[in-house]
Amino acid sequence: MPTVITPKELLKWVPGVVLSSSEELGWKDMQQRSYRYKGQDVLIPPLDHFMIVYYFGGHTPMDRCVDEGWTRTACAPGDISLLTMSQDSHWNWTEDIDVSHLYLSNALMSRVAMDVMERPIEEVRLHDLLRTQDTILTAIVGAITNEVRSRGIGGALYVEALSMQLAIHLLRHYASVTFKESSAPGRLSQQQKKYLLEFIDAHLEESIRLDEMADAVGLGVWTFSRKFSESFDCSPHTFVTEQRIERAKRMLYSGTLSIKEIAYHCGFSDQAHLTRVLRSKLGVTPTQLRKTNNLE
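Now predict its structure.
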């Protein structure tokens, strides 16, 4: 049995008819798939996501074994099952059912937990819950599932907002959280700084978003922004601009590339953008900076 599987690979272990899928929608940290299942007995390897199962068709007795402990119930439309990440499980049901699966990434759950609890997160685990009914969970699962079918305007942003609400609701009512010991409260750790600087340097040619930097160090955007300012005494945007300027200076001093090429490699939109930034920050144009270095 594999060590861990992805939501897409689940179909190999639990055969069924796919009714809907978010695979082509480009969502971040959230996936959705609906299935029509025959009754079956299945061993499922650990998933690399947290899983929510919403039952919307059929009634069946349901047995599940997690950590060598069996739970027995009956599932019907409106019921919900939860399965934590990295947990192998054994399921048995006898009747046909239609279900909607939501898969939440560990990155999402950890970021949200960090933001709302303001402490470094070691691990998030969902409770072993085979059957519950929850109007808030039902509404969010329904909205995300409907979005797969309707594919409305702004779908990715809409689902991102719903995912945040879902993560907070799970953390409030259905999760246990283990915290890391923080050696430097309020600041990025040395390891986080290292990861961040490596990420910025590797992507300096591109437009670097705040959420991408936060992801690079495993934090939520709000917590990252606060810790970044404490660590570097400036905003992330200002810091990235300074890194672009430093690279541009080094490349201008080397004298091997044109100013247009340097602008590209430093993440400026064009030569004029580079010129405006250098004039604003250093009081010189790229040509003047290059000439000054040559005179020295």
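The CA atoms of residues 54 and 80 lie 5 Å apart.
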